[in-house]
Structure formats: structure tokens, C-alpha cells
Specification:
184 residues, alpha+beta, Aminopeptidase
């Protein structure tokens, strides 16, 4: 397998592997607020019945992701047949010295083989070598497997956005979880 920095985005390849995620649990967000205290809590609960959340990208997002790939901070993973099997699309945030991973996907045929872990390690090296202090990612609260994966590779939950998912693609209660990892 070959891990390499992207210089552009093949939209059809991206859409082929960025299909969505299986949901059998969800982090339910709750907020309690008084004059002296604000408490945000995530509680893991089973999702009955389980479901599959399809990923749909409009042209605006695809153009934005293509722009990210051109920045030179995104990576692809290719098999021996030179077929894209993993991707991390990232945006540089110079002011905060953070590399934001907007999309992280591994072809379902290659799941649980360490490709995502190695890809994120490579992203951390890329970020660190280019002067970034942090690697960050945002994950939908229904993608419990992704949250657990990111925690296992050293990212920590740092924020919850209770209102970022207000489009027609989201259901009530869908929130974004923001995770970060400080880099050496």
C-alpha cells in the first residue's frame, strides 16, 4: 500500500469510498445551564433499530474538498492496483496552527486492517513537519465507531456543537463532536 499527499481530488473515487456509516449507538448531547455553570454531556446510548447513515455531498462541498486537496495537506491510500482505498481530506488553519481533517474514509473492503490508524499517523507527521501544533477532526454523534477510533489514536473530545447540523440531511438531535490531538 502507498500513502501519499494529494495534489487534487478525484471526486468519483472519493464518493466511492465515502459512503456513510453504520449506527448501532449514538452519543446523546444534553446541556444544563445556570447562571454559574454550564454543563455539556454526551451519553452513549444504543440505537434501536440500528441504521446506516448515507453520506451525500453537494457540489459546494465537493468543490471545497477539491480545494483542500490542492493545499497539499490531504492524503490518499492506494492499493497495489493504484486504486484509492483510503482518504483524509484536511484544511490548514494557519492562525490556530491546526490541521483540520474534514473527511476520513477507508474503503469498506479494507476496514479493520490498520489503514485508518496509519493514515492518521501520516497526517500527524505531515502536520507536525509543516509547523502545525494540532490535528483536529469533527465527527457526527451517530458515528460512534469513528469517535472510539479517534480516542484510541490519541484524539480527545474538546467541543460539541449542538447546532451545526441543521440542514435537511440531519435528524433532530444530531450534533458534531470536535476532537483534537496536540502534536510533538
Amino acid at each position: 500500500m502507498e500513502y501519499r499527499v494529494l495534489t487534487g481530488l478525484d471526486v468519483e473515487d472519493f464518493k466511492r469510498i465515502a459512503i456513510g456509516h453504520f449506527c448501532d449507538a449514538v452519543y446523546i448531547a444534553s446541556k444544563a445551564e445556570t447562571e454559574d455553570q454550564v454543563v455539556l454531556m454526551l451519553t452513549l446510548e444504543p440505537l434501536v433499530p440500528p441504521c446506516f447513515k448515507s453520506q451525500v455531498f453537494d457540489d459546494v462541498w465537493l468543490m471545497e474538498y477539491a480545494r483542500f486537496a490542492e493545499q497539499g495537506y490531504s492524503m490518499g491510500v492506494y492499493n497495489d492496483d493504484h486504486r484509492l482505498i483510503g482518504i483524509a481530506l484536511a484544511e490548514k488553519r494557519e492562525r490556530s496552527k491546526t490541521l483540520w481533517v474534514w473527511e476520513l474514509h477507508v474503503d469498506k473492503e479494507y476496514n479493520r486492517q490498520g489503514i485508518g490508524r496509519t493514515l492518521m499517523d501520516e497526517m500527524a507527521h505531515l502536520a507536525s513537519n509543516n509547523g502545525f501544533d494540532r490535528l483536529a477532526i469533527r465527527i457526527q454523534n451517530t458515528n460512534v465507531a469513528a469517535v472510539k477510533f479517534c480516542r484510541a489514536i490519541g484524539l480527545a473530545i474538546e467541543a460539541v456543537d449542538l447546532s451545526s447540523l441543521t440542514n435537511s440531511q440531519s435528524a433532530d438531535g444530531d450534533v458534531m463532536i470536535y476532537m483534537k490531538r496536540k502534536l510533538p
